[in-house]
Amino acid sequence: MSRDALDRLAATIAARRGADPDTSWTARLLAAGPEKAARKFAEEATEAVIEAVRGDRARLTSEAADVMYHLLVMLAACDVTLDEVLEELARREGTSGIAEKAARPAPEG
Ligand SMILES: N=c1c2ncn([C@@H]3O[C@H](COP(=O)(O)OP(=O)(O)OP(=O)(O)O)[C@@H](O)[C@H]3O)c2ncn1[C@@H]1O[C@H](COP(=O)(O)O)[C@@H](O)[C@H]1O
């Protein structure tokens, strides 16, 4: 999926806020709140993990698409934009993963 396609999907998800939950899965998830979206993301991630461990490439590809879609819905439910996530990835470019981990903000609460 190109960056354009990812942007279009994020825009579609944002536009579904307040849409009819009977006709839009995205609207249904957003109306249910961040916890539902987060649980659905975790469920889809687990399904992707299972396919990765099983080594089923085609099913992993399909589950990974579900994961990416549900990640975007969870971010939207939490008012975090795709641009913010991509900016964070860009900020990390060229730094080692070990140094980056040490510099991460501590979790709130
Ligand atoms: N990429 C997706 C996408 N991937 C998965 N899903 C939906 O995610 C849902 C969850 O899948 P499950 O198999 O877990 O469904 P389920 O078991 O019935 O759900 P639960 O009972 O567990 O809650 C299904 O209804 C899938 O259709 C998606 N729904 C929407 N999109 C994209 O979002 C756009 C807008 O969709 P709507 O909001 O539905 O108009 C679409 O055009 C697509 O581009």
UniProtKB/TrEMBL annotation:
It comes from the Bacteria. It is found in: Cytoplasm. Keywords: Amino-acid biosynthesis, ATP-binding, Cytoplasm, Histidine biosynthesis, Hydrolase, Nucleotide-binding. GO terms for molecular function: ATP binding; phosphoribosyl-ATP diphosphatase activity. One of its GO terms (cellular component) is cytoplasm. NCBIfam families: histidine_hisI, PRK00400.1-3, PRK00400.1-5. This is Phosphoribosyl-ATP pyrophosphatase. It comes from Rhodobaculum claviforme. The gene is hisE.
